[in-house]
Design a protein that fits this description.
- The termini are far apart.
- This protein has a domain at about 90-210 and about 245-385: SGNH hydrolase (Rossmann fold).
- The longest helix is centred in the first third of the chain and has 29 residues, at about 1-30.
- It has a 5-stranded parallel sheet with strand order 6-5-7-10-11, with helices on both faces. Strands 1-2 form a two-stranded antiparallel sheet.
- It is built from 14 helices and 11 strands.
- It is globular.
- Helix content is about 40%, strand content about 15%.
Length: about 400
């Protein structure tokens, strides 16, 4: 009899535990405590957005919680058929997560706002603005996206949204650690390979990785290193999950090496790849019959000096050194001048607006544009395109 009672108790305890875990899983999903995944492997570009995917995007600091839908062609945008409607002028914007812009609702992104402003400003033609941004892309991924899919939209103007904060790093096979570009011996780009999608989990880890509750508690643990180390010892986390941010031999995080006044040899190589990729993109756009322009996006480091000082203070190896936060922007502006490509730097108007106060233009922790940043970027880009006669305007 006691044996039966013990079995019954164990069964009830198991049912209760499973019920509790199920409630926890439902709660995490209902409250959107972890972001959904919107990307899948791509054999040429490393990753691409999943067509028709729906979900929510957030991050651990909860600076935003945004519903996201990917369109039928695999862009975070409204639907656009590949065939251009008669009498339509198309602007295609290439970029990374700043263009993908999952941090704000779709209608608040600068490509959608730009289209609205151009249409209500007396344009001489119907204008469509297409947003072709994918998180993690550097110029390499953007070149391949344009050559594979972008030119199919028959754009009249292609605008590259260049983000100096990581685009140059992304183009380096040495510095980049997630979407690695692969170059031939002659330096020409072949493809981009995703290292993340190669890390397939098997066994019980692969099973629990399917649960949102696991990812939420993993996220919490990673915010507390001492707890994360205990989880590693218990086998609940892999050791590489708590590895410190990648640093250069001089002890400076890789991401900030771009701001060194004199680039190291590895950064010089990264710039060489970047310039070659810009050359290739310019040639591909010209061959498609479109015009080409570059918009250099601002970074929070440039716009908010106090936030940059927080970064320097948090990394002892960076203290007491000189940093040129505008150096990457000037480098791209130099390429544009040499190739007679119209170029807009957004940092000056962002700095002016930030100095006046008001809503933040970049998220403090995440770093991407806020809704206010998108509005300012759209207005600045609209004025730039009209001033340079890159879009149809009424005389």
């Amino acid at each position: 009899m006691k044996g039966r009672e013990w079995v019954a108790g164990a069964v009830l305890a198991t049912i209760g535990m499973l019920f509790g875990l199920a409630l926890l899983e439902v709660g995490v999903r209902f409250m959107h405590l972890v972001p959904d995944r919107f990307w899948e492997p791509d054999p040429i570009r490393g990753v691409r957005l999943i067509a028709d995917k729906r979900g929510w995007w957030t991050q651990e600091d909860r600076e935003f919680l945004v519903p996201v839908q990917i369109n039928h062609q695999g862009l975070r945008d409204v639907e656009h058929p590949y065939a251009k409607p008669p009498g339509t002028f198309r602007v295609l914007i290439l970029g990374d997560s700043f263009v993908e812009a999952m941090h704000v609702p779709l209608e608040a992104t600068f490509p959608r706002l730009l289209e609205k402003e151009l249409r209500t400003d007396g344009s001489a033609a119907r204008i469509e603005v297409l947003s072709a941004g994918v998180s993690g892309y550097g110029t390499a991924g953007e070149v391949l996206l344009f050559e594979q899919d972008g030119k199919r939209y028959q754009p009249d103007l292609v605008v590259l949204a260049f983000y100096p904060g990581n685009d140059v790093k992304n183009n380096s096979p040495t510095l980049e650690d997630t979407l690695k570009p692969i170059y031939a011996e002659d330096g020409s780009l072949q493809k981009v390979v995703s290292t993340e999608h190669k890390k397939k989990q098997h066994g019980w880890r692969g099973l629990i990785a399917r649960f949102a509750a696991y990812h939420y508690f993993r996220q919490v643990l990673l915010q507390h290193p001492h707890l994360a180390q205990r989880a590693v010892r218990l086998g609940l986390l892999k050791g590489d999950a708590v590895t410190a941010k990648a640093v250069q031999p001089n002890g400076i995080p890789v991401d900030y090496g771009i701001y060194a006044p004199v680039p190291s040899p590895v950064w010089q190589e990264a710039w060489q790849h970047t310039e070659a990729l810009l050359d290739r993109l310019l040639q591909s756009v010209n061959q498609s019959g479109a015009r080409f322009a570059i918009a250099i996006l601002s970074s929070r480091d440039q716009v908010y000096p106090n936030w940059w000082q927080e970064i320097v203070a948090a990394h002892p190896a960076m203290r007491g050194q000189q940093w040129d936060l505008d150096g990457p922007q000037h480098h791209v502006e130099g390429w544009c001048a040499a190739h007679e490509v119209p170029c807009l730097a957004l940092t000056p108007p962002f700095r002016e607006a930030a100095a006046r106060g008001g809503e933040p233009l970049h998220y403090h922790h995440d770093g991407h544009f806020t809704a206010a940043g998108h509005r300012l970027a759209a207005t600045g880009l609209k004025n730039f395109l009209e001033q340079h006669r890159l879009v149809p305007v009424r005389s």
